[in-house]
Amino acid sequence: MRGRFGSLHGSMSRQPLRLAALFAGALLGVLSVAPTARAQEPYGAGESEAVQPIRNRFWQGQVGLRSTFVTDPGFDPFANDNLLTTFSLGVSRTVFQQDAFSLAPGLFWDYGGRSATARGQATSLATHRLGLALEGRYHFAPWGYGLVRVTPAALHQSAELKDPLAAAPFVSRAWTFALDASAGAAFLIGPHTSTSAAPVRWWLATEGGYGYASATSLLMRPDLDSDDPRRTGNLDLGRVALGGPFFRIYGSMTF
């Protein structure tokens, strides 16, 4: 997409530019309105101050997937590889804008887990991540922006091991601190209008970075009521830290 728009921007004539862009948009079935040469100019070049906030200031809702490469040995009983993939939701709002730069705090929720066997017994690990992000953006063109994000978060881990000979499954639940630092880019799918005629726009974005998570204990206790007469000893699987490099891809809607 970026190469297509870059080549269109260098065209000598505006009318052939519009015809070619409209034809390409019809073939792809994505672009509802072809971008004009003015719409592809950098911010601040021939634009009025009334138009810029429409592009740089918006609410954004996100839906995507995140994959973290966890190398901590404590993760081994719950997965046969190092990937922890989670479903991701987020919402953010631009609160500051200066020329092509903007800041957008947001709230994010990730949920996912893994399951495997340890010593022939079924194991599972489920995670919830609640994060408060601060995202900086550089809008290099009307159809794209770069981003950097720092996200402190609370991470909830719920581990379970099922022993057929035990009175109840062994469980371990804990909250821990997590911190993400990432960078990425977002590209406009459409529509490619530079005015408020299209208040809702659709984006595709990717980001990568590193996520830190403090280690938590995997001292697992039988999931029994306190007054249950059946008694079973605890099971200690050590500690686990679910940090590591991560990659995230998501679609978003802005308005």
Task: Please provide a brief summary of the model.
This protein is mainly beta and 255 residues long. It is built from three helices and eleven strands, in the order αααβββββββββββ.
Report on the structure:
With 255 residues, the protein is mainly beta. It is 11% helix and 55% strand. It has helices at 2-9, 14-28, 52-56; strands at 59-69, 83-93, 96-98, 101-118, 121-141, 144-162, 170-190, 201-213, 216-222, 235-240, 244-254. It has an eight-stranded antiparallel barrel. It is elongated, with a radius of gyration of 24 Å. The model is unreliable at 1-54 (pLDDT under 50).
Write the layout of secondary structure elements.
Elements: H1 2-9, H2 14-28, H3 52-56, E1 59-69, E2 83-93, E3 96-98, E4 101-118, E5 121-141, E6 144-162, E7 170-190, E8 201-213, E9 216-222, E10 235-240, E11 244-254
Antiparallel strand pairs: 1-2, 1-11, 2-4, 3-4, 4-5, 5-6, 6-7, 7-8, 7-9, 8-11, 9-10
Main sheet, how many strands, which sense, barrel?
8 strands, antiparallel, barrel
Low-confidence stretches: 1-54
Question: What's the tally of helices?
Answer: 3
Count of individual domains = 2
Helix content: 10-25%
- Beta percentage is over 45%
How many beta-strand elements?
11
Q: Whole-number average pLDDT?
A: 82
